Amino acid sequence: MTTLLAARRAGLERLLAAGVPGAAQDMALLLAHVLGLTRADLALLSPQIELTESQVAALEAALTARTSRKPMSHITGHRMFWGRSFAVTPAVLDPRPETETLIAAALTVPFASVLDLGTGSGCILLTLMAERAAANGVGVDLSDAALVVARANHARFGGYAHFVQGSWFDPVQGTFDLIVSNPPYIAADEMAGLSPEVRNWEPHLALTPGGDGLAAYRHICAGAAAHLTPNGWLMVEIGPRQGAHVSTLFALAGFESVGILPDLDGRDRVVIGQIACREPVI
């Protein structure tokens, strides 16, 4: 029989040999996943506890997947985001800590309605709905498979949200206090430099629009004003080198108070802007 200690050591050796980053943390997460435990509960187990045959087989499958650089979220089926565990599949981008910068920014402004363009797993929209329980929102995505994931997350977390299929503003009706988006922004010449977890496993439709990576921002900025309430806000995630370009697109589209916000690593991550008031001042 295989003990927990032996499984951990052998698995860690395999992950290290495969060049998996964060191998020790991933090994702990894989063990917890296979055993159906949290990492905290796993730490309480005796290292000499014996794994069952089915657990050994499940761990082997998980290790094989991870050494092929399959993302951890695709193996475990979920990813933490803003303190909540979201379902994830290969049809959606893996929610990332950097995107929490967008959540933090959105929660600094008043809103009762939100439009999320390119919603993917729904993590942005559903987090905002959870944090502002009286708000309502619409999530749009071109991918039917992504919307299956978003709706599953919605069923789990609730909130006044619904999801529609389509390209950017095409299926959208009405106006919103806040428009958010984490659109595809990787330039074509940057794709080769991405990690294998991203380049080989995540949906390219959600990663890159091709070319200079700015096509989605051009489209969003061109259509946002028509779908914002007076003094409404537009907030988008960006690549670290895109701040100046996207800020210019905001300004040309009539947005004011345009700003660039950094993520926790100090890199440009979110561009925000407020549409000029379109109501007469009395």
TrEMBL record:
One record GO biological process: methylation
Catalytic activity: L-glutaminyl-[peptide chain release factor] + S-adenosyl-L-methionine = N(5)-methyl-L-glutaminyl-[peptide chain release factor] + S-adenosyl-L-homocysteine + H(+)
Keywords: Methyltransferase, S-adenosyl-L-methionine, Transferase
A Pfam entry, by short name: MTS
EC number assigned by the record: 2.1.1.297
Ranges of residues in domain Methyltransferase small: 103-189
SUPFAM superfamilies per the UniProt record, alphabetical: S-adenosyl-L-methionine-dependent methyltransferases
UniProt xrefs under InterPro entries: DNA_methylase_N6_adenine_CS, HemK-like, N5-glutamine_MTase, PrmC_N, RF_methyltr_PrmC, SAM-dependent_MTases_sf, Small_mtfrase_dom
GO molecular function: nucleic acid binding; peptide chain release factor N(5)-glutamine methyltransferase activity
Binding site for S-adenosyl-L-methionine: 118-122, 141, 168, 182
Keyword Transferase carried by entry: yes
NCBIfam families registered for this protein in UniProt: hemK_fam, RF_mod_PrmC
Family classification: Belongs to the protein N5-glutamine methyltransferase family. PrmC subfamily.
Stored PANTHER family: HEMK METHYLTRANSFERASE, MTRF1L RELEASE FACTOR GLUTAMINE METHYLTRANSFERASE
Name of the protein described by the UniProt record: Release factor glutamine methyltransferase
